[in-house]
Design a protein that fits this description.
Length: about 475
């Protein structure tokens, strides 16, 4: 066999072809991953690779001159000889197994002189495995595209903002007016009041098809803040991408950039941010000239920026650039009339998420939630409802004992304080009635419109 290949190499050299071609032909004829059968125009086998010969239990060359249908009754090679048309990527039954392959006619001056059959894979299971991998890859690509679209677009609108109180209605009304004007906005409010919800809504109100780029300022590493916000050119620093990278402001071209908790940005970045906001120009790290960018800035903070300006922790000029329009979101404790609305809305949503069917809250539990101070605002309310619903899993309603301990403790403290104030008020009323009655208890009882025995008891209780 070796001598034959040496002879082939010599013949190929005579045609000016390299030994690589000989190796390629050898691989083609002896490919261990594919089956190869060549027939003449009568469907008689002229060549069968050694792997297929072993498959049929034949000695080397044992298939030559025999009809292909002796080994593969359902072979498509005779049909290819008849039609002169190839059969590519078809599924064939081969010795009781389904495999995928291709059949090609061999033509010379328009006449069929033979045909070639190749089984591309050892079994159909291999094809199915590859198809599964391709489908999985497509799903991953689709997911990444949807994720990118999700991250670059506003997810909420003003319809998602709950609240019937005057304070909340005023905040939404102002936000809608500002949304129609292409101006920068500063949103202030405690943590959990819904600043991001307002930012999404303002953007989507007038720029629904434009990019919405959110920047969580506290999460940006100090040393990467400049490159993340403003981008960089190739070779700007060690480890930089060879193609460079646009920053967040460039990504927001034509849309909105939302700077969440803007107060956490270092002063060194604030200086460059001021120029970008003022000039609407971005200069990447390593760049020689700035790039013009159009965007709207929505900044949010849960701290008093004016106080930070006084302390030298926030640039005054940047503050006035960002605060062209200011929206203050009231905390939940200042609009308690909205609490029942939030309870109903989020209880329904949590029920769907947990698969529970809790219908509502007992009067005591509801009263406790309404009177609680809510330092964490709406975010804390959602958390409390989730905790309570887990404790009231199979109950029809959330009871007082299902609420977290800190809420029940505050309720008890509030009740005790209320009782003390009531007792003090009652004591002063009895004292005043006794003074008006000249110390006559019967007359004082008539003034207070209570039984005389009750008055005697209260006088003794208060030590009058």
């Amino acid at each position: 066999m070796t001598k034959r290949w040496e002879m082939l190499e010599e013949v190929l050299k005579g045609y000016g072809l390299s030994p690589t071609i000989a190796y390629a032909l050898r691989f083609f004829l002896r490919n261990p991953y594919e089956s190869l059968i060549i027939v003449d125009d009568q469907a008689k086998i002229q060549f069968m690779d050694r792997g297929t010969e072993k498959f049929f239990g034949l000695a080397p060359g044992g298939a030559k001159g025999r009809d292909i249908r002796e080994f593969v009754p359902q072979s498509g090679l005779p049909l290819v000889l008849e039609t002169k048309k190839p059969m590519i990527g078809r599924i064939f039954e081969f010795h009781g197994k389904e495999r995928i392959g291709s059949l090609y006619p061999l033509l010379h001056e328009g006449k069929v002189v033979g045909a070639v059959g190749r089984l591309l894979f050892q079994s159909l299971e291999e094809v199915e495995r590859i198809n599964r991998e391709i489908r999985e890859l497509k799903r991953e690509i689709t997911y990444l595209k949807e994720k990118e679209l999700y991250e670059l677009s506003a997810r909420y609108s003003f319809e998602n903002i709950l609240g019937e109180s005057t304070l909340m209605r005023d905040a939404v009304y102002l936000a809608k007016r500002i949304a129609m004007i292409n101006t920068d906005v500063l949103i202030t409010g405690e943590s959990g009041t819904g600043k991001e919800l307002f930012a999404h809504s303002i953007h989507g109100y007038a720029h629904i098809n434009k990019p919405f780029i959110k920047v969580n300022c506290p999460a940006i590493p100090f040393e990467l803040a400049e490159s993340e916000l403003f981008g960089y050119e190739k070779g700007a620093f060690s480890g930089a991408l060879a193609s460079g990278k646009p920053g967040k402001f460039e990504a927001a071209q034509g849309g909105t950039i939302f700077l969440d908790e803007v107060s956490s940005l270092p002063l060194s970045i604030q200086a460059k941010l001021l120029r970008v906001v003022q000039e609407r120009e971005v200069e990447r790290l390593g760049a020689t000239k700035p790039k013009r960018v159009e965007f709207r800035v929505i900044a949010a903070t849960n701290t008093d920026l004016k106080e930070l300006v006084k302390e030298g922790k926030f640039r005054e000029d940047l503050y006035y650039r960002l605060a062209k329009a200011v929206i203050t979101i009231p905390p939940l404790r200042e609009r308690r009339e909205d609490i029942p609305l939030y309870i109903a809305h989020y209880l329904e949503r949590i029920n769907r998420s947990f698969g529970t069917k809790v219908k509502g809250l007992s009067p005591a539990a509801k009263e406790t939630l309404i009177n609680y101070s809510w330092p964490g605002n709406v975010r804390e309310l959602i958390n409390v409802l989730e905790q309570a619903l887990l404790r009231a899993w199979e109950a029809e309603e959330i009871l007082l004992e299902h609420l977290p301990l800190e809420l029940r403790t505050e309720r008890q403290e509030d009740s005790s304080l209320f009782r003390d104030k009531m007792a003090q008020t009652e004591r002063e009323m009895i004292r005043s009635a006794l003074e008006k009655a000249g110390g006559q208890k019967t007359k004082a009882a008539r003034l207070l419109k209570i039984p005389r025995s009750t008055l005697y008891m209260k006088i003794k209780r208060y030590g009058l």
